Amino acid sequence: MIEIAFLGTSASAPSIRRGLPAHVVMFEDRRFMVDCGEGTQRQLLRSGLGFRRLETILLTHAHLDHILGLAGFLSTVMRWEILPRVAIYGRRGAIERVKDLIYRVVLRGTRPSIEISFHAIEPGVLFEDEKFRVSAFPVTHRGGDSLGYLFQEKPRRPFLVEKAEALGIPPGPERRRLVQGHPVTLPDGRVVTPEEVLGPPVEGASLALVGDAGRVDDLVEAVRGVGALVIEATYLEPDRDLARRHDHLTAAEAAWLARAAGVRHLILTHLSRRYREREIRQEAQALFPHVWVARDFDRYRILKDGRLEVERAEAYEIEEERDVLAESERAGAGHSGL
Q1: How many CB atoms lie within 10 A of CB 227?
Q2: Could you tell me where in the chain the CATH 3.60.15.10 domains are found?
Q3: What is the pLDDT of residue 157?
Q4: Domain 2-156+201-330 CATH assignment equals 3.30.470.20
Q5: Any catalytic annotation for residue 65?
Q6: Which member of 29, 35, 65, 305 is catalytic?
Q7: Pick from 73, 89, 86: nearest CA to 127
Q8: pTM metric for this prediction
Q9: Alpha carbon distance 16, 273 (integer Å)
Q10: Which residues of the chain have pLDDT under 70?
């Protein structure tokens, strides 16, 4: 099972109900924070997730609405020494901008009290063990330095207890060795191989996460067949010209990608105040049925069989809010990240 918690789902600037982009992806005892918009540390507290084990931060790109929260987050974890280390990964442009933020603003010549490391990465596998893999793939967005991330639980062959009992394999270390792929010799001299007691591979859970994007045709293979696709839906089709101008997607384009790539569930984020939640969902569902429009503090669990368990945030009427920024957007302002 892979779980994702949404800490911020707004585009470009926060709204009354939505914070700036930040997500926490969890697998067993591992946690990854993807992007860290302004106010993320408060969202971590409000969500109940806290700071523990958030030692790995993955950046999709260098725009300020996705990275400014690192200043407050790192300041807090250094002051209280909540974490022994933090490792930040992203394309070179994102890493250089974050280094400026940390060393020229937050620290200003002082030494950090914890270990902070920066890793300029290219598309490919980032982390891998016997159970889990995290990889990065290129995304087209203004500036040409963006990444998406693919989280994959590796296939697992189930242990067939009935076959093991029929072969006289007692519970204990012999069964454990067979699960690990090693043959065992029983007390009567018989040799049992893993093939005799393991079933066919069962695909693990998978999640693809895309930050900002300006096109989707080049993402089909990167996200093909995933259990859940998280991707922006900053605009709707009547404003497609604005989407092109600011290098963002419409909800329909995100849904086209989900359908073309054969994903199981589509979760939309990076949302504009100019639209109501139901309008975003309706546009996407015209092309793809399994659509969720994420809210701050939503949690989604992607299971091995492709099912989705959803823990929704409080059902306040997000789409009815009105604020000064919302009126500005309806008047034609765009979502140009800096």
Answers
A1: 27
A2: 2-156+201-330
A3: 86
A4: no
A5: yes
A6: 65
A7: 89
A8: 0.89
A9: 10
A10: 315-337
